[in-house]
Amino acid sequence: MAVEDVRQDMYKLGQSEEKSIQDLAEEIRLDLQLQPNENLEGGTVYGKVVDEEGNPIENSLVKIMSNDYEPLAHAFTAADGSYVFSPFPAGNNYRIFAISDGYKLQEQIQFNLLSNQQVEKNFQLEVDPNASNGIIAGDIFDNTTGQPIEGAVVKLYQVDDQQVETLYALTYTNEYGQYVFRELEQDNYIVRITALGYQPAATNVVIDQPGQIANVISNLQVDTATERGTVSGLITDDNNQPIAQADVILYEVKEDDSLNPVAFTKTNDQGAYLFINVARGDYKIKSNKMVDITV
């Protein structure tokens, strides 16, 4: 690039505070402290972005970052694949990247830039074979509360022309109820979701466009069969020995602390008991055992 003498500002354009002249012949003072123009001693970073055959790639993104990946500036290439950052502050260990639709991200070797120095950075981008693949991104919520469901099992099946399903991938939702399937070929899919305490759900998804992103929102219904809980335990004597065939009564504790009997069972030979299909609520048990006495 040719070096030319150009006029530049020595300082950053400054602006003073605001004051008013209100009285007759009043005098005011407006001082201004100018800050140095950091770009005055800046350098130039320039180059071209081409494909594997050397053809220029228009509208490629070129980005400069600091050594610890803080973004500093970006530019887009012209029709001839060229770009330029000028003036750009002098500094050390700059990182520079280039990317374009359908191509892989490429990073050049880190570089230093001195005052008024010109650095050339050219890129030859490789085609990304997965660029035309699609994505399925989903969100799963509780249909009643609207809260995200964490830990749901999400299975992705490919579906052929005979509607035969083949498991393609499996993942789990994060704490926000989110999941993603990546690098999907154009095809027919079914997303099947299972989550503890909820009815299973399924959604058909068609990926038929290059780079398509399909967003799937699923609201799961609570499974009433699994909504109910269980109450279990052991009945023992004062020597900590199990009591077989003991009577066990399950009581629901009402708001006024009164007890309402709701179920009855007996312990097994090891003194264990189990109540199933117990609705939500507060509970206590009472237990005893009858014995025949000859009188």
Automatic annotation (TrEMBL):
Keywords: Secreted, Signal. Transmembrane segments: none annotated. InterPro entries: Carb-bd-like_fold, CarboxyPept-like_regulatory, Ig-like_fold. Pfam families: CarboxypepD_reg. Belongs to the serine-aspartate repeat-containing protein (SDr) family. This is Cna protein B-type domain protein.
